[in-house]
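Course assignment 3, question 2. Fill in each field.
Student: A.L.
Task: Predict the tertiary structure for the chain below.
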Amino acid sequence: MAHTIRDKEKLIARVRRLKGQVEGIERALETEKPCAEVLRQLASVRGAMNGLMAEVMADHLEEHVLQAKTAADRRQGGEELIGVIRTYLK
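Answer field:
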């Protein structure tokens, strides 16, 4: 079973919290909150997104590289992770 399926409920809960945080930014902008408050909310969302990304990346590394059954699976898992990291760091 893939890690995203196994941890589905936990990951969905984190995404829903992120969604709530983004909606909070929208409300802050609509109600013309001070820019410092909006910036704090943006930083919080970024941190939460980075945390989610780190968790899924670590789980991918564990399942698809470290515990891969074959060298070909390990290579594929590693290449997938490299692609994601490159995209993430752009």
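Instructor remarks: The longest helix spans residues 35-66. The two ends are 31 Å apart (CA to CA).
Grade: pending
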